[in-house]
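Page 47, continued from p. 46.
Same chain as before, 110 aa.
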Amino acid sequence: MDKNPRSLPQTLRHYLVNPLALGYLGVVLAVCVWVTIDAVSASSSGDASFAGLWAVLATAPTSMLFLVAGPVGLIGIPIGAIVQATALGALYRSITERRARATDVGVSNA
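Result:
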């Protein structure tokens, strides 16, 4: 970890602005758009759909902590997405920084 303390927004930006975290957030956004389209089309036909579970599963396990009935339970999806993307971003940063340090020292990964 850096010796300079960062504020929460700086830390989130550090971990969320990388290809892995942004790709994950893009997938979650695509799933949520698909769920919304499915919910609109299912409500007009009167048929029930379990498509909403995909949004919860895409952000699991964090979103499962917020499984409550009603619209209040939907808050778990964006919270889960941010938590999971931050964890993936921290993993990405760790791997890339480790490779950069190994290259600086002269150790090859090949």
